[in-house]
Amino acid sequence: IDVSGALIEFQGESIAEDPTEIIEDDGDDLGGDVVVPFPAECLEPEGTLREIMDYTLAGSMYQQPELALAGAIALLAAMTGRKISDRYDTRTNLYVLALAKSSTGKEAARKTNKAIPAAAGWLELIGSERIGSHAGIVNALDAYPVSLMQLDEMARLLDPALAHLLGHVAH
Question: What is the pTM of this model?
Answer without folding.
Answer: 0.70
